[in-house]
Write a structure and sequence with these properties.
Layout: H1 27-36, H2 41-47, H3 52-61, H4 63-90, H5 94-102, H6 143-159
Length: about 160
């Protein structure tokens, strides 16, 4: 990833504002090692006492860090794939491992997520038409009411022919 360019409108003698970076290249192999054990970038950062937003910033400005994370992602995928194969051949919970492999991280890790957005609509994109029907429970009717209902239904059926 490209490093940030210095801003031309700031004079060279003006002090840089903000907190100095905590980035130290010695963190790279540690993050890579955590990721090699199956951890996401965010979890590896937390293991080293670094916030996820901080590492996302480092990814943008420190090429060596980005390369270490890229290697870590490959190693992390390999770790999860090995676990999946281990469980699949041993009768373990391979679905759980597969889910973990597909949904590694929700943030800036750059991996895909297994989600879909589905919207439903009626004809020509309009609203879906619904119809409410009332159902008569005839088991609760008395014999007299059943006989009366049968007469009504017979009249309706004969009128429809």
């Amino acid at each position: 990833m490209p490093k940030k360019k210095p801003q031309p409108d700031k004079p060279a003698d003006k002090p840089v504002m903000g907190r100095p970076t905590l980035y130290d290249p010695s963190i790279n192999p540690k993050i890579e090692e955590w990721m090699a054990q199956g951890y996401s970038l965010e979890s590896a950062a937390i293991k080293e006492g670094i916030g996820p937003r901080t590492v996302w910033g480092w990814l943008k400005v420190h090429d060596d860090f980005s390369q270490a994370v890229e290697r870590g992602r490959v190693k992390s995928s390999a770790w999860w794939e090995a676990k999946l194969l281990e469980h699949a051949s041993g009768g373990g919970n391979s679905a759980l491992i597969q889910f973990g492999l597909r949904n590694r991280s929700k943030s800036a890790s750059g991996w895909n997520h297994d989600t879909q957005k589905v919207e439903h609509s009626g004809p020509n994109g309009g609203p879906i038409q619904t119809e409410t029907k009332k159902i008569l429970d005839v088991t609760k009717l008395s014999p007299e009411d059943l006989e009366a209902l049968e007469g009504i239904l017979t009249q309706l059926d004969e009128g429809g022919e």
